[in-house]
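Write out the 3D structure for:
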Amino acid sequence: MKIRTTLIVLFGVLFTYSCSDDDNSGDNITLPDWKAGDVVYSENEYVELVVGDIPLVITVPAGGSLEPEEVPDRDCPSISTAAYPQSLEIARAIQQEMKDTYGKTPFVVINHLKRTKLDVNREIDQGTCYNPEVIPAYEAYHDFIDTSLKMAVRDFGSAFFIDVLTHARVTGRLELAYSVTRNQIGKISTGHELEDIAPLSSMINLLEDNEGKFDIQDVVIGDNAFGTLMADREIASVPSKQDQYPTLGQSYTTSTTTLNRYAVPEYPHVSGVMGFFHRASNDTDAERLTTAQAFCESFFEFYDAFYPGAIQQ
């Protein structure tokens, strides 16, 4: 079912359950009465939410193509407008594979505006350049993520999200970011300063939920780390057990605004990664299907390893 809502209605709903600035647990709040498979749009359909029925939230910040004339281009200092081709198509392929093979629907949050108009993966000043035409879309995008994570935590006790972007680097790998630096990933590989690095990472809530049964090395390069499971399925990934850290001279992105906003202790039971997918390896429908199949298999194995029994298949 498609649900179109103006921002007045949307914000009237969302603000009723935001109980405080530092409580994002999903407890004692009233969430929207949306059902799995519902498609919810912001005003002008600039932002889309597919409502899910598993604790996976896929965010697509920069795969949009809309360039409405009434929306001015961003022109404030120090912005980037580089596109991330194939990111929306990769997310859709994962969504379809989940439905076709597993009968499940992930939450999917999509910014349909081109990055020249809106960048939801920056803070609001750079992301909108304070253009009033796009501030509501920026806010709707993040409200949809907030709602999706809270619904997943309510229904499953935890949530995992992936911020989907693409790259054209010669390494040809899936790069996974955990909000820690390249140097810290090297230390995870060698087993140094694990207790100091863990609280800085986007997996801290997963580690806290498991009450000491695992450490940051287990969730980043261990047997059941997401990158390891993807590499097991022939999607070269870093970090992973097979390729533990980017070496000096190799480009590597460490985090995104979305990761830093939601995979934090202020959102209990939420963990996440930034997935930087190799563009040339996902250029066709067949290639994206291969990626989606590996992703879905890896996600369910990963989640069962760290949250056993949370998802009934």
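The CA atoms of residues 120 and 166 lie 16 Å apart.
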